[in-house]
Amino acid sequence: MAVREGILALLADGPRHGYGLKTSFERATGGVWRLNVGQVYTTLERLERDGFVAAAPADDGQRSWRLTDRGRDEVGEWWWAVPGEEPPPRDELVLKILLALSGPPDHALEVISRQRDSLLTLLAQRRREADRRRRSAGDGLAGHLVVDALLLRAEADIRWLDLCEERVVEAGDAGRSEEPVVRRRSRRGGRR
Amino acid sequence: MAVREGILALLADGPRHGYGLKTSFERATGGVWRLNVGQVYTTLERLERDGFVAAAPADDGQRSWRLTDRGRDEVGEWWWAVPGEEPPPRDELVLKILLALSGPPDHALEVISRQRDSLLTLLAQRRREADRRRRSAGDGLAGHLVVDALLLRAEADIRWLDLCEERVVEAGDAGRSEEPVVRRRSRRGGRR
DNA sequence: CGACACATGTAACACGTTACATGATTTG
DNA sequence: CAAATCATGTAACGTGTTACATGTGTCG
């Protein structure tokens, strides 16, 4: 539900043909998100079927598309709608950790620890990427902001993993003595 | 690519039948993520087709499933894999803002502002939800952590939106004088 | 008995994604 | 001329999701 709405949003600026939508989409996202042209055409057909777009008077041999009134309404709502609410997103990292938590605690802690390590590495990469983009001004706002978004998300995920670890350790301490929880890799270690 | 792997992970603890997987999945996620049983069966068939699961000797009239060796390998890798990398996720909020940014600046600022407002409201709701769960201890770790994850994500998104707004305003100031950028709703206003 | 949880499955559809085929036009 | 870009499309597949049909067992 991203390409679909994205195409609608692009068409709100005026009629365009399929290939133009592809290039517009990629330009708008700073070249970070590539789009297979074929998907544009299939998506346009589906949008036509749903009454959101219609054929616009063609200039030359090209098929041009325009928003219908319903389509315009749809985009209008889309701008204000908060994504990822209703239904709440089934996040894969969260699911993974939760499933790990319903297994043996030491395995769970291992998964959390490794996920955090990987995320920290990823974070460092993205920071370098962000710096690179910040220096080369020609890169455009879009690509820059995409990296920033990934950065902030990764940071949030790491914080969440820390939280998970705390909770597991607490729970382990609560059921202390017998079956001692393996506390591998002391939390907040030298990493970072 | 979450239900699929989730089922594999659950089967790693030993053979189960379809309905049991549904309940296990929902229990593991603290009841936050419901799962249509039908999806379990179709997913199991697809996993069988791909050689990740196979029929296990049935006790009574129920069909039991077990992991194959390939399936076990698959789960093993899944635990360590960082989700959302390769390919980078096409996040809808990010796309929305980027598309807004390629339009008129005042509309972009309006979208950013409204998204932030909605997210702040959502955040407040989730904080209350988190508190409620914290007080009622019977709720289980899982549901608790899910809410925390949503909370931290929302905070990260809000921070990112602030960043976007800054950049837009900066860009607007750079091209100062003629065509002045509308600076509606002073950042960091009385909200929150 | 009636409601509810347990249990299995099918059919249909949504969106995203890739690979492939085909041709016109531009440009080095 | 050859390669790249522009331009349109089709076919096939993958996962997620819902709705529906069907039957057993249990418990108040």
Helical content of chain A (DSSP H or I, runs of 4+)? 55-70%
By DSSP, the count of extended strands of chain A is 3
Low-confidence stretches of chain A: 183-192
Succession of helices and strands of chain A = HEHHEEHHHH
Mean of all residue-level pLDDT scores of chain A: 86
Q: If interface size is counted as residues with C-beta under 8 Å from the partner's C-beta, which chains form the largest one?
A: A-B, 62 and 63 residues
- Overall geometric form of chain A: elongated
What kind of assembly state do the chains in view correspond to? homodimer
Summed up, what is this model?
2 copies of one chain form a homodimer. Chain A is mainly α.
Can you tell me about this structure?
2 copies of one chain form a homodimer. Chain A is mainly alpha-helical and 192 residues long. Chain A is 62% helix and 5% strand. The first copy, chain A, has 7 helices and 3 strands, in the order H-E-H-H-E-E-H-H-H-H. A 3-stranded antiparallel beta sheet of chain A has the order 1-3-2. Chain A is elongated, with a radius of gyration of 23 Å. Mean pLDDT of chain A is 86; it is low at 183-192. At the A-B interface, helix 1, helix 2, helix 4, helix 5 and helix 6 of A face helix 1, helix 2, helix 4, helix 5 and helix 6 of B.
